[in-house]
Amino acid sequence: MRLFATYLIGLIFGVGISISGMANPAKVLNFFDVFGTWDPSLIFVMGGAVVVTFIGYRLVLGRSAPLMDTTFHLPTRRDLDLRLIGGSAVFGVGWGIAGFCPGGALPALGTGRMEVIVFTIALVAGIFLAKFLQNRGAAKAASA
């Protein structure tokens, strides 16, 4: 049942990204082109997502436990560190250059466009590189 729910949630997300046009990098890049071909539709997509998320969190966190687990798994850290700020900056710069974020690129893989495939390969490589560097740093800290 969990696998089906995960699939259904991903499908709804992917369809929403596709319908909104956010799988099209030109639409995203036009949002950043304020003095050129500016397209404000990204604001409305993000605004709608924030409203739905706000309401969803209020409803879900009002429950004693989630439907498919025994407890909620929520982050406990609230500090801003270099890794968080650096990762956010790299994400934003990459999004601004490529016009893709992971949420928009994965549904766009179905188009078979080479730039989506290259972006996704770079995304996966970046994930593995970050894990490698994280493990290397942890090993150095442990040996010191």
UniProtKB/TrEMBL annotation:
InterPro entries attached here?
DUF6691 (IPR046513)
The name on file for this protein is YeeE/YedE family protein
Keyword line: Membrane, Transmembrane, Transmembrane helix
What organism is listed for this UniProt entry? Answer: Aliishimia ponticola
Could you list the residue ranges that cross the membrane?
Answer: 41-61, 82-110, 116-133
